[in-house]
Write a structure and sequence with these properties.
The protein has 3 domains: 43-198, 2-Layer Sandwich (Aldehyde Oxidoreductase, domain 4), CATH 3.30.365; 219-291 and 356-435, Aldehyde Oxidoreductase, domain 4 (2-Layer Sandwich), CATH 3.30.365.10; 300-347 and 447-717, Aldehyde oxidase/xanthine dehydrogenase, molybdopterin binding domain (Aldehyde Oxidoreductase, domain 4), CATH 3.30.365.10. It is 30% helix and 22% strand. Helix 3 runs parallel beside helix 5 (120-147) and helix 11 packs parallel to helix 12. By secondary structure, the chain is α+β, with helices and mostly antiparallel strands. It has a 7-stranded mixed sheet with strand order 9-10-7-18-15-16-17, with helices on both faces. It has a 5-stranded mixed sheet with strand order 12-22-21-20-13, sandwiched between helices. Strands 23-24-25-28 form a 4-stranded mixed sheet. It is globular and about 80 Å long. The protein contains 20 helices and 28 strands.
Amino acid sequence: MNKPLATPKVTRRQALVVGATLSGGALLVGCSPAEIMSVGAKKDFGAFGPFLRIAADGTVTVISKHIEFGQGNHAGLAAIAAEELDADWDKVRVEQAPAIASVYGNAGMGGTQGTGGSSAISGSWEQLRRAGASARAMFVQAAASKWSVPAGEVRVQNGLVSHASGKQAHFGELLEDAAKVKPPQQVTLKDRSAFTLIGTDRVRRKDTIAKSTGTARFTQDVRLPEMLTAMVAHPPRFGGKVQSFDASEAKKIPGVVEVYQIPSGVAVVAQSTWAAKQGRDALKVTWDESNAEKRGSAAIVASFKDLASGKAQPAEGARWAAFDSKGDAARAAGGTAAVEVAYDFPYLAHATMEPMNCVAMVKGNNARLMFGSQTQTLDQMNVAKVVLTLPGAVQIETLPAGGSFGRRANFQSDYVVECVQIARKVGGGRPVKLVWTREDDMRAGYYRPIVHHTVRVTTDAEGFPATWRHRIVTQSIMKGAPPGAPKSDIDFTAVEGALGSPYLKATPVVDAQLLTPDIGVPVLWWRSVGATHTAYVMEHTIEQLARRAGKDPVEYRRALYAKAGANRHLAVLNTAAEKAGWGTPAPAGWTRGVAVHESFGSVVAQVAEVKLENGVPKVGRVVTAIDCGTAISPNQIAAQMEGGTCYGLSAALFGEITLTDGQVDQGNFDTYRVLRNSEAPQVETYIVPSANPPSGVGEPGTPVIGPAVANALLTLTGQPTLSQPFVKT
């Protein structure tokens, strides 16, 4: 049944505080952004707090503040809490948290509620451990009081509470008593030597059966009484807007209910998806393109090259900004360069298996949404602006999603706001499902930006970098950040992976600068963000330097890591090289390439075996070593390395979005080529043991495969690969 929209009770002070925030005003002293964004939210938690719920049958439900969109984080999050609770893993379930930033905020995202930056596990590590340990202490105390024994003598294992006297009880039997115990202020967490669940292959996904049988409920599966379906006609060029439209033919389509103009285009609302699409196809829209981006991608690339070379000057308001600088910068521009290269990277689509969609119900100032929300707080804030309510009063039921790679998290909440605008016009709280086709998302969505690098390196007598001059030209992802977001002269998402590189740390003179010109094409983070291009540039440049110095690529890196004190890089490199058999002959017809990169707190090394078939690279075996701190679920880490490798390889070989006169040329997988099953490599994953807290896993596997393959190709052909994709269609 469709739940009625509840009217939140809001004080005048609450309304003033949130109103100031939404309009970009100053925050009141003593109010955190998370608290302000949560005003109007209902907070009703059980005895064990907001992250755990325990039932009478002993079932433990872990409340996840992070969306599940294929990365498998729900199992890892559940295991963290279950380990400290000593729960029966077979009785552990996972449930999605409501959207309340003050309770479920992500410290790695400024306290807003959201999933990104490979931070789900790392950002919940201490929080969920303490939640589990606190609940365990409550059961121990309940048992100790009931049995009149010292709490220190009570043991918990697999959901069974016991005492040496022979007394024992399952969680369900002690539930009523445990719920009355005051949660402890301080808890003792397990020493990792006592872990029985974390780090074992027992930690497997909890959603496999539901997804395999089709019972998992995604947005496209939502069916509500009287629900309508909407599709939107978007302008063919970015920056265009509706000048006029004729809906007469669209309204003749059986099932079409109404046609509305919204800020982003023209929406057709119908009784079914097919009717909405037919109605949209029948629309006649005249677009105002006076402010649209009309350049093609080739022209944008050419302009970036001119800016990097100094042939063109930055536009007014734009300037070069140093992101790494040491020594005499003039030295980096002089001397005889050992390597002087320029790299180009194209726009990339996220190409999620499930395109964008959302279900919204709006009645007056009340809004309820059901969809795969990646950044609940941003979505609440943007929806609140449309319906004129408090962000915390916007109800979001977060559903699993079929991929994101960053696409579902953007500052504008584009498709979400569209759905709410349409539902508001429909009114009455009637459900509206907005459906984007793959063509919609590929032609009117967001992209990994075009990036141009120039690198000039001189070397010392031993062939190691003496000076490093680096220029990066790309659009800024962070320029669209809402009021209150951290401000900086540098968009760190554009330079991460180059900034802090052990190669720059080992180089005496560094002059590295970034320029972010404005282009009318919407850009967004894409799986591994800046590392998608910086890993390639740093690793392929180092490979060329090693080759010029006549040194083995692995030994060359080892020496640089020693200079930089990069012990984690050295450890993963040694592991990958050993497991791949580096230094021994590769299988007949194959050549090995190596690459190492740190992103999201984890360090990954890969050795790829590559050959050319009819001039096209084919990747066979890929040996991966990762240091991701404490490994929660080795099986899932391996899965993420496999998926990330294939995603990165797909982009390196084939991925490219091009524009002709401002219009996107690609629309679906027939024109946006992706890696096929038959082309996927065999990926072996080795986890380097670590006592550090867990770090990212979802993204670090993506950026390393491209340079590993390019480095193998350098050995095969003697020529560097200076642009992506490798395969031109």
